[in-house]
Every structure is written in C-alpha cells, then in structure tokens.
Write a structure and sequence with these properties.
alpha/beta, Rossmann fold, eight-stranded mixed β-sheet, 16% strand, binds adenosine-5'-diphosphate, binds magnesium ion, ATP hydrolysis activity, ParA/MinD_ATPase
Length: 271
C-alpha cells in the first residue's frame, strides 16, 4: 500500500529538499516505486537537486488545474527507473494550489506508487499545511540549533492538528531527522547535542545526517546524495534512515561517537 511522507520543518534551509531527494532515491534503490513531489511553488529546488531541471515541462499546478495529466508531468529519473519527480512551478502563483486539487493528485499517485515523498516549503503557512495535509508519515527535519528546534516543535503541533489524519482522529506518525550535525561543534557547545534535541522534541529519531561537503557537491551535480558516492557519511546516514522508514531495524550511528568514546576512555585513564 502507498505511503505518503511529508518532509517538513518550519524553518527554511535546514535540509528538507536535500533529504527528500536522498530518501526518495534510497527508497527507489530498494526497487520500490517512488515519487518525490515538490510543494515549494516559486522556488523549484527539488528538480535541481534531482538533476532534472532541463526536463521540466508540466508541473504540480498544471496537474492540479487540469492543464496536464499526471503522467505528462511526471519525470522518470535517468539513473533509476523506479524514481520519479513531480516538479513545482517557478512562475505561477502558489494560490493556484487548491486543497481539493492536491487531494485528487495525491489519490492518483497513491494508485501507482509505493512511496510518495512531499518536499514542503518553509514556514507554517498554507503551502506547508497543504504539503502535510495527506501525509501518513512526517519526517521533521531539524538542525541542532535552538531556532530550528523551536520551529520543529511548532510544526509537530500542526501535524497533530491540521492534517487529514489528525482530523480523522488518527495518530500521525512522526520522525525526527537531525541534519547538518557537526560533532565537533556540538562538543564545543556551539551546537545542541543529539540528546538535547531529543529531550525537547520527544519524537522518535529517524537518523542523524552529518554536516558534509559531500552534500553540496552532490547537489551541484544534480545527484541525490544517496546516488553519488554510496560510502560517503551522509549517503550512509540517509540510506540507514530510508531503511528505518521502510520498517527495518538499523543501529543508529551518532557522528563522532567513536571519537567521543575514545575521549572518555582516555580521559578516565588520565585521571
Ligand atoms: N548535511 C549537510 N551538510 C552540508 N550542507 C547541507 C547538508 N544538508 C543540507 N545542506 C545544504 O544546506 C542548504 C539548504 O538545504 P536544503 O535541502 O535546500 O534546505 P531546505 O529545503 O530545508 O530549505 C543547501 O545549500 C544544502 O546543500
Ligand atoms: Mg527546500
């Protein structure tokens, strides 16, 4: 049965689009038919990260308004035949995205895909609530800093109030994806530590993605980080997170943990 996931955060620039592309590609690599849907009307970022910006003809709003059929707007990935993109419009007015229209598109996507991953715009306004509206599962992307954690807390409130699932009285499944985590900065106290974030946002942890130049490099190449160098730290972390989404139990790797442990052992010996 199809699963709709919203990748959301409240704050912009935390890694939602990066995470949508990386998780989508990792799920598609499992052989499951996956579509990533760009709800960030006006920005059109996801097509760049997916390396498909030159192939966009029709977009989500065209389909919502009935100007194009869904199969005309879907772009099949050149690397993975199980991966598709439904792009956003760069030029149109985001008010053209109606709640009823989005519902029709989501229902149609559910008929053919195993995974539907919705990349949410920043903010807590209409665009973000439309992106989360039909989700079964939410991935709350958070950076280890106070402002991001606070915004995520607000989004968790919205997920429990403004979604179709919440209105039916059902529980919205929520997962925390901690991104851009830099263990050295956390150790120095310049960033929150994993346990600090978990204490404030008491939703289960889906994964910890390290801060890494590999993310920028992949993005510049138009390659989801999980389709690039599979052994890079962010690719491994995203692949593990995707496996957890698919229901597997995978041990959590905390970036820098090994060194932290060494530090503690050394510290004890020295004492
Ligand atoms: N783990 C990471 N390490 C380094 N840079 C990252 C990481 N995740 C995201 N970024 C960078 O942060 C910026 C914002 O990411 P993006 O996915 O567009 O965020 P959002 O969709 O939430 O606005 C981009 O330049 C992206 O390359
Ligand atoms: Mg984005």
């Amino acid at each position: 049965m199809a699963k709709v996931i919203v990748v959301t955060s409240g704050k912009g620039g935390v890694g939602k689009t990066t995470s949508t592309a990386a998780l989508g590609a990792a799920l598609a690599q499992r052989g499951e038919k996956t579509v990533v849907v760009d709800f960030d009307v006006g920005l059109r970022n996801l097509d760049l990260v997916m390396g498909a910006e030159r192939r966009v003809v029709y977009d989500l709003i065209n389909v919502v308004q009935g100007d194009a059929k869904l199969p005309q707007a879907l772009i099949r990935d050149k690397r993975l035949e199980t991966l598709f993109l439904l792009p956003a419009s760069q030029t149109r007015d985001k008010d053209n995205l109606t709640s009823e229209g989005v519902e029709i598109v989501m229902n149609e996507l559910r008929e053919t895909f195993d995974w539907i991953i919705c990349d949410s715009p920043a903010g807590i306004e209409r665009g973000a609530t439309l992106a989360m509206r039909h989700a079964d599962v939410a991935v709350v992307v958070t950076n280890p800093e106070v402002s991001s954690v606070r915004d995520s807390d607000r989004i968790i409130g919205l997920l429990d109030a403004k979604t179709a699932k919440a209105e039916r009285g059902e529980r919205m499944e929520k997962h925390l994806l901690l991104t851009r985590y830099d263990p050295n900065r956390a150790e120095r106290g310049d960033m929150l530590k994993v346990e600090d974030v978990l204490e404030i946002l008491s939703i289960p942890l889906l994964g910890i993605i390290p801060e890494s130049m590999d993310v920028l490099r992949a993005s510049n190449l138009g390659t989801p980080v999980t389709l690039g160098d599979a052994r890079s730290a962010p690719a491994l972390a995203y692949t593990d997170a995707a496996r957890r989404l698919a229901g597997e139990t995978v041990p959590m790797v905390i970036p820098g943990e090994k060194r932290g442990l060494f530090g503690k052992i050394f510290g004890r010996r020295a004492a």
